[in-house]
Every structure is written in structure tokens, then in C-alpha cells.
UniProtKB/TrEMBL annotation:
Residues 1-37 are annotated as: Disordered. Pfam families: DNA_pol_A_exo1, DNA_pol_A_exoN, HRDC. Its EC number is 3.1.26.3. This is Ribonuclease D. Residues 1-14 have a biased composition (Polar residues). PANTHER family: RIBONUCLEASE D (PTHR47649:SF1). GO terms for molecular function: 3'-5' exonuclease activity; nucleic acid binding; nucleotide binding; ribonuclease III activity. Residues 247-327 form the HRDC domain. InterPro entries: 3'-5'_exonuclease_dom (IPR002562), Exo_C (IPR041605), HRDC-like_sf (IPR010997), HRDC_dom (IPR002121), HRDC_dom_sf (IPR044876), RNase_D-like (IPR051086), RNaseH-like_sf (IPR012337), RNaseH_sf (IPR036397). One of its GO terms (biological process) is nucleobase-containing compound metabolic process.
Length: 425
């Protein structure tokens, strides 16, 4: 570590007052641009022999391991990783190409028991699991920043406010499936893990100073042990602009076009939006065109679209138009929980009053603790408990209900008294 980095680490966080402020930067002044990795840009690992060397090096490293992944969102189908960056003391930084090395389970096994440091872990863990990398312990620097009360928790903002360095973030949205990857992109990728260990150490100290380290450790453990999310039900309902579609027959058109588009995108390995835009799907659903010529006159279907493509999309429209009434989708999804809060006053005024009191109490405590209300307790959990309170609504049953909805012990301890008062009121 350089002398400047030592200074940044030593002076990163002020130790007086409450949560860090937005303009709180190290005492040495303006942030220092971080332009090059300490050991330069490492070669991209794309073969089994090179991967074996990396596994051996990182197995022999010391301390936690910084991990990041780059995807090609908006360019390719799905959320697979196209580059994995790792760094550990004693091993340096490695850049691994999951296209050339699709199975990284050996690396994951070599790091068993090691703490993994990720920023916004829930974004990267699904694609890391797909290639065999599953942490048993982790430290999420974004979540740590939220719990510590930082107003901006992006990686660049955190590195700047905590360590005094400015990261170049110009390549975050590029097509990481590009091969070969340009050197400026690789430099950016290597720098993303360059200071994660230093950031983790400073955040741990700050959380400990605020008395929140135990809360953070519970959160990190819950993330590491959480099972993969189940597939979303009726994903076509999330089509942008869906609120304009009112009739069931039109909904069926959205469903058919969405499904046809998804199959094409998966086959071509491109982002669905590059095959057909959400706006075009909604236009077709609203218009219910009688033929391909009429379809081609709608926004999103004309110009460069071939006749064959128009006929393909018109076939999906025709399938929806031919469905019997009983097979048409119902308006809206079946709710697995309480109704939208805006409907509570009409459906159950007492529940609406409970929810209002609970929300106000949660917001007040979150402000006092210098953390976002949704990190103190999820809004969905508050809604569920207020809509169907446990009986009797005493602290023990409320605590059990919170635990059943996935709340962590620290959240249960803090929130149970608030909800007990709101339910009693």
C-alpha cells in the first residue's frame, strides 16, 4: 500500500457525531484519481492451466477476497457473468473470463471459509452461483454503507468519501461480452476490486463505532445463506407501459408477443429489448392489427423490420386473438399478500390506521438511527403484519410474525415495540 493509501485509510472516517455526512471526505483534501492497478493490468485468464495457477495462488493468499463480476445487461440474453475480478493479499488481482473458463467451482472451493467482499452482493451472486462460486461468508460494502448512514452508497461514491480516491466509472454499461476486451475496460474492472478490502476494513470500524456491526453481520449472513430466487410468475406483466393495457384480449397479445420475443432473444443470445421493444408490444396490444401490413404501420414495427419478422409478430397477435375467453389472462396478478395500501382506507379503515402509525414510527426510528427505513424493516413486512395482525398482538406473537417474514433478530428487537404500539392503537 502506498503512503497516500495509508493516509487515506487512517483518516477516512471522522469519529465524532452521528452518521457520516455527504461531504465527509478524508482530511487530506480532494479525492485522488485512481488510474492504474498497483500491479498493472493482469492478463485475462481464459484457459484451464492459467485458471489452475490462479486457484493455487488464491488458495495460498491471506485474508478476505474482493470479488466483482461484469455482465452484459442490455446486450445479451440473461444475466450471465462475462468477467470475474478477484483480489486477495498475497495473490494480487486476477481477471477471469467465464466464457473460456465456464466452471469456477474449483476456485469457489479453494475459497471456502474465506470472507468474500462484494459491493451490492445481491446483484452479482446469481451470476457467480451459475459458474460455481458460492460464498459461505461475505461482507457487502454497499449494504454496510447503508447501515452506517452514508447518503450515497455507489462504489465510486463510497471509495471517494471513505478512502479519498476517485474511481473512473465510464465503462460500467459497456458490452462485456465483447472479445477481446479492450485494455481501458480491463483497467476499470481491475480497479473495481483494488480497494474493496480497504473499504471493507474502514466500514467495519465505522459500523462498530456506531454499534451496528452486529446488525451488519446478521444481514451479510442472511444474504450468503439465501436460496436462489424462484422464477418470476407471469414476467410478461412487467412489460413497460403495461398500465395502458386494460382489456383481457389485449393482455393476451402482450403475453404472446412477450413470449415470442423471449424465445427469439434466447436463441440469438441478445437482450430482448434489441429484438422488439416493450413500447412496440404495447402498441400492438392496443391496436389489435388485422394483418402484417397494419402491424407494420405501428411505432416500433416499421422501417428496417423485414416482412418475415412482421409475419412472425403478427402470428403471435393472431394466436392471442384466437384464444377462447376462458384462456385469456385475468386483469392483474393474484395477490399473495395484502392489497395495495391505497385501497386500505376503503377495504379496512382500521388496518389503514395501523399501517399509518407503523410507517410513521419506523421512519422516525430509522431517522434516529441514521439508516434507510427499508433497511430497518422491509415495507412489505410492515404491510403484512398490519393487514393481518397476529392474535393476540403482543410482543411475542409480533416477534414471531416478523421472524416468519424473514426479519433478522436485530430488526425484530428494534421494530417489535413499534408495531405493538401501532397494532394496539
Amino acid at each position: 500500500m502506498t503512503e497516500a493509501q495509508d493516509t487515506a485509510s487512517d483518516t477516512a472516517l471522522r469519529t465524532t457525531g452521528g452518521a457520516p455526512s455527504d461531504d465527509e471526505v478524508p482530511a487530506h483534501g480532494l479525492p485522488t484519481p485512481l488510474l492504474e492497478p498497483r500491479e498493472g493490468i493482469p492478463p485475462v485468464v481464459a484457459g484451464e492451466d492459467a485458471l489452475a495457477d490462479v486457484i493455487a495462488a488464491f488458495a495460498g493468499g491471506r485474508g478476505p477476497v474482493a470479488v466483482d463480476a461484469e455482465r452484459a445487461s442490455g446486450y445479451r440474453y440473461g444475466q450471465r457473468a462475462y468477467l470475474v475480478q478477484i483480489r486477495r493479499e498475497g495473490a494480487g488481482t486476477a481477471l477471469i473470463d467465464p466464457v473460456g473458463c465456464p466452471d469456477l467451482s474449483g476456485l469457489g472451493e479453494a475459497l471456502t471459509g474465506t470472507e468474500w467482499i462484494l459491493h451490492a452482493a445481491t446483484q452479482d451472486l446469481p451470476c457467480l452461483r451459475d459458474i460455481g462460486m458460492r460464498p459461505s461468508r461475505l461482507f457487502d460494502t454497499e449494504l454496510a454503507g447503508r447501515l452506517a448512514g452514508f447518503p450515497r452508497v455507489g462504489l465510486g461514491a463510497m471509495v471517494e468519501s471513505v478512502l479519498g480516491y476517485a474511481l473512473e466509472k465510464g465503462h460500467s454499461a459497456v458490452d462485456w461480452s465483447t472479445r477481446p476486451l479492450p485494455d481501458p475496460w480491463l483497467r476499470y474492472a481491475a480497479l473495481d476490486v483494488e480497494l474493496l478490502v480497504d473499504l471493507r476494513d474502514q466500514l467495519e470500524r465505522e459500523l462498530d463505532r456506531q454499534g451496528k456491526l452486529g446488525w451488519a453481520l446478521e444481514e451479510f449472513s442472511a444474504i450468503a445463506s439465501a436460496p436462489p430466487a424462484p422464477p418470476r410468475k407471469d414476467p410478461w406483466r412487467r412489460t413497460s407501459g403495461m398500465h395502458k393495457v386494460r382489456r383481457r384480449r389485449q393482455m393476451a397479445v402482450v403475453r404472446e408477443l412477450w413470449t415470442a420475443r423471449d424465445k427469439v432473444a434466447q436463441r440469438r443470445d441478445v437482450s430482448p429489448g434489441k429484438v422488439l421493444s416493450d413500447a412496440a408490444i404495447v402498441e400492438a396490444a392496443l391496436a389489435l392489427p388485422p394483418n402484417a401490413n397494419a402491424l407494420g404501420s405501428l411505432p416500433g414495427f416499421g422501417q428496417r423490420m423485414s416482412r418475415r419478422q412482421l409475419e412472425q409478430w403478427q402470428a403471435a397477435v393472431d394466436r392471442a386473438k384466437a384464444l377462447p375467453e376462458v384462456e385469456l389472462p385475468q386483469p392483474g396478478q393474484a395477490l399473495a399478500g395484502p392489497p395495495p395500501p391505497r385501497a386500505w382506507a376503503d377495504k379496512d379503515p382500521a388496518a389503514a390506521a395501523r399501517l399509518s402509525a407503523a410507517r410513521a414510527a419506523v421512519s422516525a426510528l430509522a431517522e434516529q438511527l441514521h439508516l434507510p427505513p427499508e433497511n430497518l424493516i422491509t415495507p412489505d413486512t410492515v404491510r403484512r403484519v398490519c393487514w393481518e395482525p397476529p392474535a393476540p398482538a403482543d410482543p411475542d406473537t409480533i416477534a414471531a410474525a416478523l421472524a416468519g417474514h424473514g426479519a433478522r433478530p436485530w430488526q425484530i428487537h428494534l421494530v417489535t415495540p413499534l408495531l405493538a404500539a401501532a397494532l394496539a392503537g
